[in-house]
Write a structure and sequence with these properties.
Mean pLDDT: 73
Low-confidence stretches: 10-37, 172-176, 187-220
Order of helices and strands: HEEEEEEEEHEEHH
Structural class: alpha+beta
Largest sheet: 10 strands, mixed
CATH class of one domain: Mainly Beta
Length: 220
């Protein structure tokens, strides 16, 4: 083999090892493929971007209770935007908005974001959640902002399980309680009067001789 061919073979081998090393690094614990998150809806209209939009229902289909709309709202403008309403077209369900703190409106600051759903965040609660959406479907959701107007999208309907557990309704069905042992209605301790009667009877029995004892004494 000539010197030029030998050098070319060595260079090719080095490239192969380099690619293999990079592939091994990419498949490590921090590889992006190991951090796959469930699909979620996203859209951008004007200055408003909405990401990770989902309708999170009760964990089980048979559970009754509220559902919530979870999403991250981004305001790319220079003025604050107030989230005035969240509606579910095609459904009679109403959505109640609650700020993260206090009783004020949900305001997305200029150049900032607001998270709907999850502990300590603002919330959008669907009171009759079981009637509004069914897990596995896509629910049309419209976010209405003070300046940007309406921003619609199709949100995935998911149960409050696995990755979505922390974003589900705060009101979840409680597991059935174990039936307590039946307690007797009557008191095991005798009443005060009963104690007196019992003691007097006992004293009478012990202090008064029986007929056989009296007869024995007279015979003696």
């Amino acid at each position: 083999m000539s010197r030029s061919l030998r050098h070319g073979a060595l260079a090719a081998t080095a490239i192969v090892f380099s690619i293999a090393s990079l592939a091994a690094c990419g498949a490590g614990n921090d590889a992006a493929t190991l951090k796959v998150r469930p699909d979620s809806a996203a859209t951008t209209i004007g200055e408003i971007s909405i990401q990770n939009a989902n309708v999170v229902t009760q964990p089980e289909r048979t559970d009754t209770g509220p559902a919530v709309v979870s999403a991250t709202l981004f305001n790319n403008g220079t003025k604050p935007q107030t989230l005035e309403a969240v509606t579910l077209p095609g459904s009679s369900a109403s959505v109640q908005l609650h700020a993260a703190k206090g009783a004020g409106p949900v305001v997305v600051p200029a150049g900032g974001s607001v998270v709907l759903g999850g502990a300590g965040n603002a919330s959008a609660v669907i009171e009759n959640g079981s009637e509004a959406a069914q897990a596995g479907n896509v629910q049309r959701v419209v976010f209405k902002f003070s300046s940007a107007g309406e921003v619609p999208l199709g949100a995935f309907v998911v149960p409050a399980k696995s990755y979505f557990t922390g974003f589900g309704p705060s009101t979840l069905p409680e597991p059935p309680k174990k039936s307590s042992e039946a307690t007797p209605t009557g008191s095991s301790a005798p009443a005060a009067g009963a104690e007196g009667d019992s003691s007097s009877d006992s004293e009478s029995d012990s202090g008064t001789p029986t007929d056989s004892a009296s007869a024995s004494a007279q015979t003696d």
